[in-house]
Amino acid sequence: MTDPGPFRSRSLAPIAWIVGAVFAGIALLVYWFAPGERPPPAPVAVEAERPIPPPPPPAAKPGRVAAPDGPNDKLGHAADFKAVYMQYRDSRDPIERALAGRAFRACFPAFLPPHGQLPSPAHVLKALPAEHRDERKDAVQALFDRCRSFLVPPLDAADIVGTAERTVNGDLATPGVSARWSLIRGDRAAAEAMVQRALASKEPYALQSLSGVSILLMNENSGGLDAGATDAALALLACDLGAACGPDSLLALQLCASEGWCEGTARERMLARIGTVDPQEIEKERARLRALFDKGAATVSSVWRGGR
Fold first, then answer.
1. Pairing with 253, which of 6, 18, 235, 263 sits 20 to 30 Å away (CA)?
2. 3-state class of 135 per DSSP?
3. Do 100 and 85 contact (CB within 8 A), yes or no?
4. Residue 69's pLDDT is what?
5. Is the pLDDT of residue 4 over 90?
């Protein structure tokens, strides 16, 4: 399903991510290059000219409007994910390029149709279990509507495969994803430089992407830090620093659609899915990290190795 973003299990984070990326790439290649012909795009119906509607009634007196969750979340508030992708995919700003990557990953490979069929949310819906089915159905449909521009036939196989590579191991990847690949390749210096830039930026979605790298960054100097608690605390800290984590946020929608966590805020859903990590330890770690960021002292050493 769609990538729900932050906090991954400590033991499964690196392995599951690699396996997922590899299988996603294989699935894309099998789909596009399997024998047989894909049906031609359905003809566009031409609507009859409609009469001019009557003028709308006078607008109601404006009331007090609550501040939106994550007002700076350009992707979370977007109705068209492809428009966000197109706007930022060639930006010189790595944070904006990562935003384009998030837009792409919200739609692929989740909504790639089976070979020979047209894109439709039905392919995802039929695989949903009975539990929370109605809520997940609504979430899947909402995501599909925002991904619709990406899915206009005929789909460009080369572009999809190439962009998928850019989002997992290229210039559209988040700092966390890039750092994982560098660590896996044995380039620890490059990985730590990427992580350090994300920490220094205090950009909430860059920090959110670091949830899952703790097990790879900790060492014998970590002083008993729990990687799972640190990963969870990073995800929650991103909410504190401005990431949209309310009940109507994109993250909440993705957690419902992909994993069945459909109740409460995104923050509450992340805590619910943690499992064995002690919530008190998470809160203690979140407070420690927040103090480091408030003092401008968040570094690879201070976050993961008990140093300064």
1. 18
2. helix
3. yes
4. 65
5. no
The mean pLDDT of the chain is: 81
Q: Evaluate the CA torsion angle 222, 205, 10, 269 in order and state its sign.
A: positive
pLDDT digits (tens, 9 = 90+) for 278-307: 889 999 999 999 999 999 999 999 999 876
Structure tokens at 26: 């294989």
Q: What is the DSSP letter of 305?
A: S
Q: Report helix, strand and coil shares of the chain as percent, to nearest 5.
A: 55, 0, 45
The SS3 of residue 273 is: helix
Count of residues in the chain = 308
CA separation for the pair 24, 46 (Å, rounded):
37
CA distance 36 to 34: 7
Residue 261 has pLDDT above 80, yes or no: yes
Nearest to 257 by CA among 144, 126, 139: 139
Interval 165-208: pLDDT, tens: 999 889 999 999 999 999 989 999 999 999 999 999 999 999 99
Alpha-carbon distance of 110 to 124, in angstroms, equals: 8
Q: Contact 160/167 with Cβ under 8 angstroms?
A: no
pTM above 0.85, yes or no: no
**64 touches 56 (CB < 8 A):** no
- CA–CA separation, 17 and 13 (whole Å): 6
Q: How far lies 234's CA from each of 52, 68, 256, 260, 284, in Å?
A: 53, 22, 21, 22, 12
Scanning 241-265, the segments in alpha helix (DSSP H) are 250-259
Tokens 């994300």, residue? Answer: 198
Q: Which amino acid appears at position 149 of this protein?
A: S
Which DSSP symbol is given to 43?
P
> Cα–Cα distance between 163 and 176 in angstroms, integer?
18
